[in-house]
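User: Predict the complex with adenosine-5'-triphosphate.
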Amino acid sequence: MSAAAGPAAAVASTTGGAVAGASVPALDVVGISAAYGPYRALFDVSFEVPAGGIVALIGSNGAGKSTVSRVVSGLLPASAGTVRLDGADVTNRPAFKVARAGMAHVVEGRGVFASLTVEENLKLAFRQRAGRRAVAESLGRAYEAFPLLGARKGQYGGTLSGGEQRLLSLAKVLVVPPRVLVADEISLGLAPLVTDVVYDGLRRINETGTALLIVEQQVDRVLEIAHSAVVLEHGSVAFRGPTSGALQAVERLLGSRERAEAGDGAGEQRGRSPGGRDGAVPGSGAGPDGRAGGEGRT
Ligand code: ATP
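Assistant: Here is the predicted structure with adenosine-5'-triphosphate placed in the model:
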């Protein structure tokens, strides 16, 4: 289990290989299952995010990516398995306690108050997270990291563009850099240039030592920044390991779907239609670790 930052460490970690003498991962997800009422959404999902590492969590629509991010953040209970944050068991703790333990969760379309200005949004977040005395310094840090926000500090949150709102959400976590930031589809619907700015923000946050779990539909984009990847398929891990392997897994899944659509029965046999957007992981099947996804779904 690796804790050192950097691609090599992340690869060793997500492949599940034990690294002698290495320390505790920032986020350790072990055998997580979860359900929405009778509908089982996750099956025995395991992976790690090393301290200071960047892991991409990718998969088609409905694969379970956001469900993983909800479970690790304490927003949805796990029906089985364990979530550890810096070695501490936070499984099924309330979200505010998981946040206090060092986890930040940024979700597309959430976390910006429309009727408050940019600066009021930031002040509120900073006061809540670090107390009144930390506000001035934190504002300086936020505007330094995201000059665009400084230029718009008097503008109401509700009038910001989608990209600016994502930056504001990211800036809020900078006051006390979290141990782990779960960024859930925060580039969704953004123009490519704006996505660049958001990803630049993620990179800056990682440079402060925060480990990132990036939930993303745009495979190419996230694999540029990630050290390693986890591919989900029908609620199960279809692949985990180096980003180059993730691309191969995606291609294999694509091939599987194409064959299924051509009618040779080699691919899509279970679950729902993936309905993937451009660049998303489609189809179904087992990955290099040999674990099939979706069986036993209720
Ligand atoms: P997308 O990329 O489309 O957001 P995802 O990989 O994040 O998809 P999830 O949102 O985790 O997928 O959903 C996993 C499965 O759980 C889907 O089949 C979805 O329909 C189902 N699901 C998600 N939220 C709920 C809910 N609140 N109630 C019932 N089922 C849900």
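The domain at 7-108+180-262 is CATH 3.40.50.300 (Rossmann fold).
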